Please model this.
Amino acid sequence: MTKIELVLTNAAGLHARPAAQFVQKASAYTSKVTLAAGTKTADAKSILAIMGLGLGQGSKIELTADGPDEAACLDGLKALVESNFGEG
Amino acid sequence: MEQVLQGIGVVSGIGIATIQVLASDLTGELKKYTAGTASAEAGKFTEALQVAGAELLKLKAAALTTGQQHQADIMDAHYTMINDPGLAANIQTKIEQGIAAPQAVLAAAEEFAALFDSLDDSYMRERAADVRDIGRRLARLLLGADQTQYGSKPVVLCAQEIEPSQAAGMPADTVQGIILGLGSTTSHTIIIAKARSIPAVTGLGEAINYIASGTVVIVDGYSGKVILNPTDANLAEYRKRAEAEALHKQQDTQMAALPAVTQSGTKVQLAANIGSPADMEIASKQGAEGVGLFRSEFLFLGREIPPNEEEQFAAYKAVAEQCGQALCVIRTMDIGGDKPLRYLNINKEENPFLGWRAIRISLERPELFLAQLKAILRAGAYGKVAIMLPMIISAVEIAAARQFVEQAKNELIHEGKAFDANMPLGIMIETPAAAVTAWELAAVCDFFSIGTNDLVQYTLAVDRGNPAVSPLYSHFHPAVLRLIDGVVKAGHAHGIWVGMCGEMAGDPLAAPLLTAMGFDELSMSAPAIPRVKEVIRRFDDEQMQQVLKKVLSLKDAAEIRALMAAFVQ
Model:
């Protein structure tokens, strides 16, 4: 099991489009991925659960991956978040 | 018996046909549905998921090919939602508990929607509608009510609301009208209806639920009236109106094929003002020769973050391609404090129309401006495209903008992306400052386009939205006419073309004056083109020169307007 902490710096936070990108990325790996923010947690492969957290710009998130490709999975998600989801 | 309902007419026109009720309310189908065993229901659900996923990918691809990036993003988000493991698990649990698949789907979607509804964020609350939409999409598939079957018979669609996913599949030739219970005038469905000129009335409320399929109906998109089971007299009267309308449309179409030339053979290019790629269909129908004003604002409004280069590129490219050999003039972002956008961070202003807006923002927000310029330059590789700067008051601004254009080009070269290196850069003449100094400005740009709406407002110091002073607003005011005349002369003296893209360009009464002044191009909303063209074709150059001379000697806007009305009629 691997864990990382990230801050959402993109303007929209995990709203519809970035949330969709995030979930599509997470779903590309076989590891189970959980996103925790504050006291709430959500399955990182569920867009509805992610959007239900209502995470805006500046939110701190903790990602936990568990599975054979857990390291690659967290690297991939980290890169996506740090690229600000390609917002221009 | 005849029954008249009053709603809001949102797309003008007359539609007469029989009602087809769309199953946005699935209660009837749900009652008729016979559920199988839990495992049979689970199987049906899995199948519905696959079909819905494929549909959404198709809709996304269709949106992308027409340059509707925003719509494509929504379909992509719906696709991801439909494949949500949390949603599937929730539905499967319900099915195992013995709930029929369609009910399970609707209930699960409602649970998630309620969660979004409860969030303290208006954007997220709107997403509740997305979840309900995918719930109904799945339910319709399960109930076999998925595909609205359109026969060859003309119909008027009737529903509380039509979901974006359903609206996309409406055939334009059979749908004669749309009547909706909800009151939105800006919904996706209404936008599609406008683009296809389908008469539409909204805001009919609860009454919509009592209308049965097969009822004969008249939709009057002008007055907002919906007449069910009309009397023979009403039917005859509306048929006559519909025929007159069809004849009018036919004449417009015939006019569309003819060039805008005067009796003396002088040609004026008539182009269209558009607000999004979707407007191109009607523009080409009306015979527009290119686009004289592509307002790029639609890409920026109603969202949390600015559009990126790729998204803008897709929209601009779509229009550039549809213009073919004709020019497509793209105006850079023209937004100010009257439409505050979170990402622009405009402070509250006493007077947004004299405030930080348009080019003033672009020059101070290079990241926004460069992304837009790069997207426009790249679209130039797919057609004839020009950049137009709004709200210019001095040559300094043009020079500053030019530097950004050069920087954008350098970045594109560096990134190895194709673009038009010789793209013309023109300006809007919409401030008295620009009109008065047109001589100097013409030396440093490639074309002028006069934006009369702002030019009139700023020149006469009249807010046309204020009923106390709006009668003073007129593009026939001598001050306005003299400014315009001077701008054309200044432009032509420097060998650049001069166009107009304000409302005056679409006024048939102004057409002879503008033609006589020597405008190279007039750009207007597409439906105005046939009438303006008809007027231009009617006179010879000498007649129009005479009336211009007369008009420039008059002192009063009302007098000038009356003279033009007599001349044209």
